[in-house]
From TrEMBL:
Gene3D superfamilies from the UniProt entry: Isochorismatase-like
One Pfam family linked to the record: Isochorismatase
Organism: Aliikangiella coralliicola
Top-level taxon: Bacteria
Isochorismatase-like domain: residues covered: 17-167
Protein's recorded name: Isochorismatase family protein
Length: 206
């Protein structure tokens, strides 16, 4: 029988967003997505969370070092403080980060991280091992090249992590255009998607 926790859909009331190590020093070396596209995807994801008042946890690995600070738009939009890790590579090993997730009381974690094969992969595996239902948002994460991305997605799915995209997360959270957050989420789509954004902009122009 399928575990009902894993079959249950995302809602604004059962999930938490974790943004892991979207740091300027890491982002300059990414090669699996165009930088402009990746930034747009990240903004789409965090604005989705903001539109539905989703709790969020932001973390950074030694931001005073070569990894640099977190992309400034992330804490500005989410309104959350950055959990600065002292040296743990796996964010799940940080007591402060893990406590912040646990404090929400939610078992579904929408996760994005840079780089995908370390900063996203390791905490996703650790959280799943402790019974969390993890959604790895691949297009709001980034790594060195497509090969590394593809290998990482295989390992994530083998462990039971749900590999997804930010627009899919938005649609799952909305569930119905008549949802109280439907209009706000539609505007996120209009601003941060390309072809469907034209559809939404046309609709809002009526």
């Amino acid at each position: 029988m399928t575990d009902r926790k894993y079959a249950e859909m995302l809602t604004p009331d059962n999930a938490v967003l974790a943004m892991i190590d979207h740091q300027t020093g890491l982002m300059v070396g990414l090669g699996d997505e165009h930088p402009t596209v990746l930034k747009n995807n990240i903004l789409g994801l965090i604005n989705t969370a903001k539109a539905v008042d989703l709790p969020s946890v932001i973390t950074a690995s030694m931001p005073q070092g070569p990894n640099g600070p977190v992309m400034p738009e992330i804490p500005e939009i989410l309104g959350s403080e950055v959990v600065e890790r002292e040296g743990e590579i796996n964010a799940w090993d940080s007591i402060a980060f893990k406590n912040a997730i646990e404090a929400t009381g939610r078992k579904k974690i929408i996760m994005a991280g840079i780089v995908t094969d370390v900063c996203l992969l390791f905490p996703a595996l650790s959280a799943v091992a402790e019974g969390y239902d993890v959604y790895a948002v691949i297009d709001a994460s980034g790594t060195w090249n497509k090969t590394v991305q593809e290998v990482t997605m295989h390992r994530l799915t083998q462990a039971g992590v749900k590999v997804t995209t930010w627009a899919s997360v938005l649609a799952e959270l909305m569930n119905d255009w008549r949802h109280p957050h439907g209009d706000a989420l539609g505007r996120v789509l209009a601003e941060h998607t390309t072809k469907y954004g034209y559809v939404m902009n046309s609709h809002f122009a009526k």
